Hints:
This protein is an alpha/beta fold. The chain has one domain: Maf protein (Alpha-Beta Complex). Helix content is about 30%, strand content about 25%. The protein has a six-stranded mixed sheet. About 40% of the residues are buried. The mean pLDDT is about 95. Bound molecules: 2'-deoxyinosine 5'-triphosphate and magnesium ion. The site of 2'-deoxyinosine 5'-triphosphate has 23 residues, from strand 3.
Amino acid sequence: MAISDGETWVLASHNAGKIKELRDILAPRGIALKSAVELDLPEPEETEPTFEGNAALKARAACEATGLTCLADDSGLSVDALDGAPGIYSARWAGEPRDFGRAMQRVHDELGEAADRTARFVSVIALARPDGSISRYRGEVAGTIIWPPRGKGGFGYDPVFCPAGERRTFGEMAPEEKRQLSHRARALAAMIAAEFGS
Length: 198
Ligand SMILES: O=c1nc[nH]c2c1ncn2[C@H]1C[C@H](O)[C@@H](COP(=O)(O)OP(=O)(O)OP(=O)(O)O)O1
Ligand SMILES: [Mg+2]
């Protein structure tokens, strides 16, 4: 499907950090994003067992509510020594209201003395169109979990995640540096290649 310049899509997310990152990447492509927060859309319960399932569920719910092309991101931190946890439960580990200090502490506590500190961030972007079609794109970045947390940039688990080959955490990087490496940027690059052809 060709995408024309100057389109507005709905971004089916209530996470301010994600919304900013996705806008920063898509604005230069001529795609403006109206967020679920601005449109006052309800936050659907994420009942699927996979990132793919939950990304599709969020994009479809917003598409049905608005009749517009909708983008959703379902993402999380997957720690190898924890069999992939928190994974799709990454937001839920922060509790309600969300406290990622607590979520990062839990990752650290559950890792204990484990020798293997490797992890990856995963993002699945789903694009739901009013004709009922849906496309999904996955991006990942490998790295290690460090302690104590470092840096105030980004959001979520960024202060405990060092991408492979880097000494700094995502929390210590400027937005444009995180954007060169992140799972979300990689998923979006796959989407842009498929949808825009470049
Ligand atoms: O780049 C990231 N840097 C740090 N942490 C991250 C990142 N990407 C995902 N994460 C963690 C925190 C987030 O809260 C959770 C995603 O959960 P997820 O359900 O997909 O998003 P969410 O509930 O925050 O917003 P929404 O569902 O409205 O899009 O994984
Ligand atoms: Mg969520």
